[in-house]
Design a protein that fits this description.
By secondary structure, the protein is of the alpha/beta class. The chain is 41% helix and 16% strand. It has an eight-stranded mixed beta sheet, with helices on both faces. A hairpin with a 2-residue loop joins strand 9 (262-263) and strand 10 (266-267). Helix 3 (56-64) crosses helix 4 (73-96). Residues 208-216 have low confidence and may be disordered.
Length: 268
């Protein structure tokens, strides 16, 4: 896949729980270290980076030893409180090694839906970026419940891209991109390298949720892509197994799915 990346200055990168943790829920230190190194290096080139990071609930569950099969909302919220501390602490230490400062931003749907609070969140992100800080965003799962959730961090990432006026949203997933059908079930599934419009046929190719540790899936990612592309922001889905893929993206050459942005009736 070859795309034009000139003019991209502000990037939102979303990473899911399956990318950040092992199957038992503990942190995948090797992947986190690689991700941080790549993002720090990209910042060193003068670009602004916002990280939307899942993983708090997963990390907390591993520490508290709650049973996933019988998990209650209260336990999930408690796990998020414990896990978020570990997650942001890890990021803070790792980025500090490369001379970068991070900031934690926890959002809820109530904040985004309120015009005044949305504007305050937007101003905070802008101020942090102007100061050279890397914002790390997650949903505030400790106070959210099923009725007031974004749905997944795929949706949150799209909202953050819109809120920050990003030039590109990169969704690091546990698959290479969008396929014509579920590649885990269909050996003949083909990767779609470019999507100019999210048609009913494209929507039909999306399956259900992703890994057992994640809450999203391709359906959520397509909804995210629709949100940002209609606002003029392109989006990429690619495999986050090797975070160095971010270098390839900024070089304009990578394996994944590129969703073209719409602007004034045309796609770019």
């Amino acid at each position: 896949m070859k795309i034009q990346t000139e003019g991209i200055r502000r990037i939102v990168v979303k990473v899911g729980t399956s990318t950040l943790t092992h199957a038992n829920g503990t942190m995948n230190l090797r992947k986190i270290e690689k991700l941080v190194r790549c993002l720090a290096d990209i910042k060193n080139t003068g670009k602004q980076v916002i990280l939307v990071s899942s993983g708090a609930v997963g990390c907390g569950l591993a520490k508290l030893q709650f049973d996933r099969e019988t998990l209650t909302t209260r336990q999930k919220q408690a796990a998020a409180a414990v896990g978020q501390c570990d997650l942001i602490g890890m990021y803070s230490r790792e980025f500090a090694q490369y001379g970068h400062t991070v900031a934690q931003i926890l959002l809820t749907k109530e904040i985004i839906d309120d015009e005044a609070r949305y504007e305050k969140a937007k101003n905070t992100v802008e101020t942090l970026l102007e100061a050279g800080v890397l914002p790390i965003v997650n949903e505030n799962d400790t106070v959210s419940d099923e009725q007031i959730r974004f749905g997944s961090n795929d949706t949150l990432a799209a909202i953050v891209a819109l809120l920050s006026g990003a030039d590109l949203l990169v969704n690091l997933s546990d698959v290479n991109g969008l396929y014509t059908s579920d590649p885990r079930k269909d050996p003949n599934a083909k990767l779609l390298d470019c999507v100019s419009a999210i048609t009913p046929e494209i929507e039909a190719s999306a399956g259900g949720a992703g890994s057992a540790r994640g809450t999203g899936g391709m359906v959520a990612k397509l909804q995210s892509a629709r949100m940002v592309t209609e606002a003029g922001i392109p989006m990429i889905i690619c495999n986050g197994d090797d975070p160095a893929m971010l270098y390839s993206i900024l070089d304009g050459l990578f394996i994944g799915t590129y969703f073209e942005a719409k602007q004034e009736g045309k796609t770019v």
